Amino acid sequence: MSSGRGSGIEHVAARVRGVSAVITSVVLLGFLVAVLAAMLVAVFRDTVLVEPIGAPQELVQRGYTPQVIAYRLMDEVMAIRLEYKSMKDGRAITADWTQADIQIPTTGISFKSFLSEVRRLFGIPETRIGGEITRDEDVLRLRLRLHQPGNHRHTQLVRSARGLDELLHLGGQDLIRSTDPYLLAHYLFNRDPRSAIALIEHCVANAPADDDPWAYNLWGLVHMADGRERQAREMFLKAISLRADFPPAYNNLGLAHTLREEYEEADAAFQKALTINPNLGILYSTWGLSYAMRGDEKKAEEHFTKALQLDPDNPRIRVARGHALVRMGRREEGIQETQKAIALSPTFVGAHLIAGDYFYKRRSYPDAVRHYQEVARLSPYFTEQISWNYSQALVQWGGELAKQKEVDAAIEKFERALTLEPRDAARLRDRIARLKAERDAAPITDKGSGPATRRPDAKAP
User: Fold this and answer.
1) Do residues 404 and 376 make contact, with C-beta atoms less than 8 angstroms apart?
2) Which mean pLDDT values do the consecutive 10-residue runs of the chain (461 residues) have?
3) Where is 53: in which H helix or E strand?
4) Distance from the CA of 140 to the CA of which of 47, 169, 388, 456 falls in 20 to 30 A?
């Protein structure tokens, strides 16, 4: 009996061990599949690996260690990418020292080395970035070294600036210019179209054929911004001829047709873009703006509602809806939407431009100046475009201050306006001179009990 019971227990134990072995095998298999999937994603995605950036001791003592500076540089790159997350996928950017690295059993090869070798064999870009910051008197200099093992490409980038924030911002732009120039062209287009055009022309001349659609699409946007809808349409069609499944070009083609009042062609282009990618909020947004330009408020709102459902934090959708609401006579709602865009992206030049114009027309000159000032800070190109409105907002504000007897503040506004708009120089100089004369001639009351006296700097009569 005991032998029978023993054999029964052993049988059960064996079955339990068998089940445990199966469960363990399934778990291990799942783990291996997950690891393999992660490896495949890591292998087949373009990658930028940032190494610690050397720093002088003075920066290290302030907390800017080589790792911190590398992270700050990556932050600058990511800030630009986030503005265009729905338009173009960026390359993966990773701090090299944070990557897990293990030895592959029996091979003596590390996981990171294995990834690099596979990328090299398949021709998938991997860029390693190192460098250092040095100081030359009162100027900081950033030297970045880009190394692509797959094609033996070595590039050195050098930037100089007085402040660390500006230096890292410029360094971030240089990194994108070297690793993803079309993304930088998008970024520059809203700040300095001339630089964007130069970069686009360089891309078309030097980039592989499969990248050209992005360049032609951007080139079309530049033409459209300058009121050349026919040339813009040609650029968008060129982009589509190079890549038929390209939503941004169809989207912009629809807007170009709208500006020419070719509404059937516009709707066909918008519909094609959404057929390719029905989950891209910006496509619904542009179609909504098109309907607003035609005066169809109901369809405009339907499309903007869908756009915001898909991508509620996209500042470009907010600005487009704000512009549409203003066109439809709902000005207060429009500026509120534009302010939401600025809250989402404080460096969005187009949003500040629209807000500045809105407040200028409403005669809210301090608010107009605040937004124009941001435009001038962010984009030298657009400063030229807004110089008249900017200067006139300052003049009107100065006039209001002068009426309130805040003479020094009024003079400061007129002097700022004088630097912006030379066409108004003679009138402004005369006004400044008259205000200064009135100020200098005005009596002041002594805080004591003595009689009123002239300003200390006023000339004797």
Assistant:
1) no
2) 51 50 45 39 54 88 88 82 58 55 48 49 63 88 79 75 87 81 76 76 71 83 85 93 92 94 95 94 94 94 95 91 90 92 87 90 92 84 76 90 89 87 81 86 57 46 40
3) strand 47-54
4) 47
Phi and psi of 356, rounded to 5°?
A: -60, -45
Domains of the chain, residue spans: 39-179, 376-461
Distance CA 387, CA 382 (A): 8
Q: What are the C-alpha distances in Å from 126 to residues 145, 157, 308? A: 14, 17, 35
- Contact 135/56 with Cβ under 8 angstroms? yes
Packed helices 247-259 and 281-294: angle between N→C axes, nearest 10 degrees: 10
Let me know if domain 39-179 sits in CATH 3.30.160.100.
Answer: yes
Alpha-carbon span 251 to 276, nearest angstrom: 11
Q: Do domains 39-179 and 376-461 have the same CATH topology?
A: no
What's the whole-model pTM score? 0.65
Distance, CA of 362 to CA of 360 (rounded, Å)? 5
Secondary structure string (H, E, C) spanning 296-362 = CHHHHHHHHHHHHHHCCCCHHHHHHHHHHHHHCCCHHHHHHHHHHHHHHCCCCHHHHHHHHHHHHHC
Q: Which two tokens stand for residue 233?
A: 């349409």
Choices 1.25.40, 2.40.50, 1.10.8, 1.10.155: CATH for 376-461? 1.25.40
Structure tokens at 441: 């001639």
Task: Give yes or no for a contact between 196 and 222, defined as CB atoms under 8 angstroms apart.
Answer: yes
- Using the structure block, give the residue that is written with the tokens 């022309």: 201
